[in-house]
Amino acid sequence: MVRLSPSILSANLFDLKGEISRLLDAGVDMLHVDVMDGHFVPNITFGLPLVKWLRKETDMELDVHLMISDPDRYAPMFAEAGADIVTVHVESTDHLNMVLQSISEAGARPSVTLNPATPLSTLEWVLDSIHMVLIMSVNPGFGGQSFIPSSLDRIRSVSDMIRDRGLDVLVEVDGGVDPLTAGPVVEAGADIIVAGSAVFSRNDRDIRGNIRSIMDAVNAV
């Protein structure tokens, strides 16, 4: 079953409790948290205090995506703060195996992210030690961007790689996912789709209706 992980980057942060309640009412059980440091990517967003607060407020699965320059230091801290999944960019560290191990030891499921131009071969030596591959279908840093069409081939290739090796690794896709792109993304092999603007910003912020539109597209595949 394909899952939706709404990105709170596009949520109303002045009413985050209300946004979480509306997501739960719509049947969502997963939340995507984009952590940006203004260095690895040009934007600055959330940090450890928000993840700790979210962990106290909800039992939703916290899917924390680190877009930071020092995951070696901070990744295990986010796991300890309550993240269920901690995803790091393969481009952000020279010690990827060590970072993944530290996430696991801190109690979260280690995962990796690939930027749109990152060679898929970077997965070769870590694929058997991760929970999930997050494929970026936009260049990271800001919400509301358009889906990069070539991402579909990358999703297929990663899905094939996982299947050929007989691994139980999930594929998540983040960037430009909406009712028009969700179907092709799932058809290409995505297990989890991340959507921000398409959930929180469209149709006068009709969150339930927006989620229904996305999932209708998914279920039509």
How is this structure best described in words?
With 221 residues, this protein is of the alpha/beta class. It has a single domain, classed as TIM Barrel (Alpha-Beta Barrel), CATH 3.20.20. Helix content is 36%, strand content 19%. It has helices spanning 16-25, 48-57, 71-81, 96-105, 151-164, 182-188, 197-200, 207-219, and strands spanning 3-6, 30-36, 61-67, 85-89, 109-114, 132-136, 170-174, 192-195. An 8-stranded parallel β-sheet has the order 1-8-7-6-5-4-3-2. The longest helix has 14 residues, at 151-164. It is globular and about 45 Å long. The chain starts with a strand and ends with a helix.
Give a quick set of tags describing it:
8-stranded parallel sheet; alpha/beta; 36% helix; 221 residues; single chain; TIM Barrel; globular
CATH architecture descriptor name: Alpha-Beta Barrel
Q: How many domain regions? A: 1
Helicity, as a percent range:
25-40%
How do the SSEs run, as a string of H and E? EHEHEHEHEEHEHEHH
Helix/strand/pairing category: alpha/beta
CATH topology: TIM Barrel
Number of helices: 8
Strand composition percent: 15-25%
Radius of gyration: 16 Å
